[in-house]
Every structure is written in structure tokens, then in C-alpha cells.
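Handoff note, outgoing to incoming analyst
You'll be picking up this chain. Sequence as last confirmed:
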Amino acid sequence: MRVLIIKLTSMGDLMHALPALTDAAQAIPGIEFDWVADKTFSEVPLWHPAVHRVITTAHRQWKKNVIQSWRDGLFSEFNRQLNQHDYDLVIDLQNNMKSATVSWFYKGDVHGLDKGYCREKFAYKAYKHRYAIPANQHAIDRMRQILSQTLSYPLPDTAPDYGIDFTQYDLPILDFDLPEKYLIFVHNASWLSKLWPLASWQGLVNKAVEQGYSVLLPCGNDEEYQRAQQIAAVSEYAYALPRLSLNEVAALTHRAQGAMCSDTGLAHLAAVAGIPTQTLYGATDTHLIGTVGKNQHHIVSDLICAPCYKRSCPRPEAVKGAPVCMDQISVDMAWHRLAEILPAQ
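Most recent structure output, in case you need it:
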């Protein structure tokens, strides 16, 4: 059986879908998946052994210059790849207008969520077969329910299984030496309201180094790299990493002794790798998108306004939108919580 999955973004959302593929592979022996994903995150689907092929989109580029993209043949080439094979089922796991647009490119029927259940109002019109899956649950649970209904197998009552063993995956060889004992500190996030203060990260670096750990600070762009350099400046055993591919980040993450993370995609990578991790939450709800899996723990702000789901802090005492809730998470408490779950030295 061959199935096409449409789920374009984001990094964490793609990882949320992986346990559903594990369920399907266990229920339907021999099933293979192709996957439509944004080219920025195209490495993620191929980590799962049931994924055969990834078809990449460049919808950010298309949106910036629709006419030029059409003249360059980007739409026609994507359409050719999307309709190159006949699939037993095509399933939109994202259910917003971006993924619905991709669904309209496909010449056959597409399965997706019904009216009132999609993330964006009119996306349901792209689907021939529609399902009612409530949104007020964790994204992983929702993905598992969608696949079980579309592929007609009983929903397992087991814990989510990402189905990935990085020790068996052909990850790239890094062109730099890793410290013998190190932690990953994922300091960046796409929302200002998710950021822990820079001084707090610096304090946590000092705590880790005092206990004999080196600290690696990954980044995804120039701004994040500059922030990583500021954090790493407090110790010669902290390293701001240049931008790496997701496969390279996976190669260093799964070897780490543990991680402290902001609420961002790399936190979910730590969950996929199964390393001991504490993830910091203020603006968002762990019950809906929190990290899930072996060795995963959450440090959640107890401020009454959290979670607010605001991109910047709306409180009057907030300085330039910096989150008050994250500022109230102390370095001592964060280190104590992380140290509790790290392997014995």
C-alpha cells in the first residue's frame, strides 16, 4: 500500500506526525509513505523508515513572486512530481490553506478534516473525504486519530512511538569534534514570548560547566547565532554553533547527555532522540503541543496569564514585549530540574 502525506511545516509539526506513521506501519505491514514537505524541513520525514520519498515545496518563494515562479516552471514541476504516482490514499495532515492548495494540485481524491475541524476555515473544501477530529487535544494524538480513521485500523492505546533510532540512521559525519560530555541548550524560538532571558541562559551555562559539562548552542539564522555567541561568551566550554542541517543537528543531539530547550522545533528533535530534556513553557500549552516521549519533562510558568498564545508579552510591565512569565523561571530551579534527569556521572 502506498500513501501520500501532505504536511508542509513546521519542524515540530512534522515530528508530531511521526508516531501516526509508526502506528500505520504496525497495523498495515508493507505500507509505504511519500510525503509533501517544505524543503526547509525535508530531512525530517526521511528519518522514519516507512517514508519512501519526499516531494518538496517552496511555497514561501512562490508566495513572494507568483508570476516569476510560474514563468520558471516551478508550479508545473511540482505538479508533475505530485502526480507522478498513483496512491491508494492521499491524506492532508495539516488542514490549513497552504496544505489545501497542495491538495488541489493533486488530480485524485484527498482525505482531510471536515468543516469546523480544520485549522483554517475553508481548507475542508479541498477534501473529498472528511473526518471530525476534535482540536482540543495534543497534536500527536490528533495525527494518530486521523491516520487510524483514514486507513481504517484500530487506534492503538500505546504511548506514541516516533519509530526512529538515530543510531541506525545514516547521519552525516560532523566536521568538528564533539566534547566528551555535553548538553544542548536550545535558546532560540520564533516568538519573542517563548524566549528565556539571555542572562538566564548564561547563568545556566555556568551551572553546567561547574558540573563538568560542555554546552553546545545551535542556531537557525544569523540573529540566533549572535545570541548564541553572547550566551557562550561566559565560558570557554560553551560553543555557539554555526547553522547546521537538520541531519547534522540530529547527529549531535542524539549523542548529548541532555538538553534544556525553548518551545521550538529542536525541542521536539530532542524528544525524537529520547535524550533527557527539560523544555521551558510560558506562552503555549503543553497539553496541545508540548514535547512527548521518553525522558521528556516540562518547566511551565505558573503566572496566571500563561499560556496566553501571544507572540509578544502583553503585560504592562513587559519590556519591549519580552515575556514576564519566562523571566520568573529562575536559573537555580531550571538547573535543579535538569540535573535531576541527567545520567549519573
